[in-house]
């Protein structure tokens, strides 16, 4: 895996963030994530201010690994990279975006849930795939089944991940990290419950350490 993928794998959990008010919430949220032990964020372009959020988080926490999620076009990718995004996440497998990212030397994690997706991902030279939406697409059972014919991929399940099933997912050898929004819900962010976010991050980190034998 490339260095950024390795770093994501070491952290183990990627908060998936939708910020409606980045000018207000991006900086304190970045601080909370770092204090909680999860210095990484996938800022989704489902919110209009995603690029601003990425820029503000990178400026406030330069050591933090901030990427862009729900990237659907190369124009969004350019906007994300200009703001300082270190990686790109897509809900599906778009060969145009994957090729564009690879040309620019930026890690890209497309959503893949079928053998056809995995086949195409292999042809495009990918190593790490987002499995999305994880729970709705067959969950851990399907991830394990898909790893038999496609053992070369590391998987980042996202969608339906919570503290209740995080340990189970991370215990799967093919899973490198899990994406989740349970520690950055709209309620927590909009009501600026930074202490609760820190606590949820610390609980996530504890699970990662337990699974990987260094807790």
Fold topology:
Elements: H1 3-11, E1 13-17, H2 22-35, E2 40-44, H3 50-60, E3 65-69, H4 74-83, E4 88-90, H5 95-104, E5 108-110, H6 115-123, E6 128-131, H7 139-147, E7 154-157, H8 166-170, E8 178-180, H9 186-190, H10 194-211
Parallel strand pairs: 1-2, 1-8, 2-3, 4-5, 6-7
Task: Tell me about this structure.
This protein is α/β, with parallel strands linked by helices and 215 residues long. The protein has a single domain (3-199), classed as Aldolase class I (TIM Barrel, Alpha-Beta Barrel), CATH 3.20.20.70. It has 10 helices and 8 strands. It has helices at 3-11, 22-35, 50-60, 74-83, 95-104, 115-123, 139-147, 166-170, 186-190, 194-211; strands at 13-17, 40-44, 65-69, 88-90, 108-110, 128-131, 154-157, 178-180. It has a 4-stranded parallel β-sheet. It has a two-stranded parallel ribbon with strand order 4-5. A two-stranded parallel sheet has the order 6-7. Strand 4, helix 5 and strand 5 (108-110) form a beta-alpha-beta unit. The model has no long low-confidence stretch (mean pLDDT 97).
Q: Helix-strand pattern, N to C? A: HEHEHEHEHEHEHEHEHH
Strands of the biggest beta sheet: in what spatial order? 3-2-1-8
Give me the secondary-structure category.
alpha/beta
The CATH topology is TIM Barrel
The CATH class assignment is: Alpha Beta
CATH level 4 superfamily: Aldolase class I
User: In whole angstroms, how far apart are the ends?
Assistant: 24 Å
CATH architecture verdict: Alpha-Beta Barrel
Mean pLDDT: 97
* Cα radius of gyration in angstroms: 16 Å
Categorize the overall geometry. globular
Q: What's the tally of helices? A: 10
Tell me the fraction of residues in β-strands, as a range.
Answer: 5-15%
Note the main sheet. Answer: 4 strands, parallel
- The level of helicity is 40-55%
User: How many extended strands?
Assistant: 8
Unreliable stretches: none
Question: What is the domain total for the residues?
Answer: 1
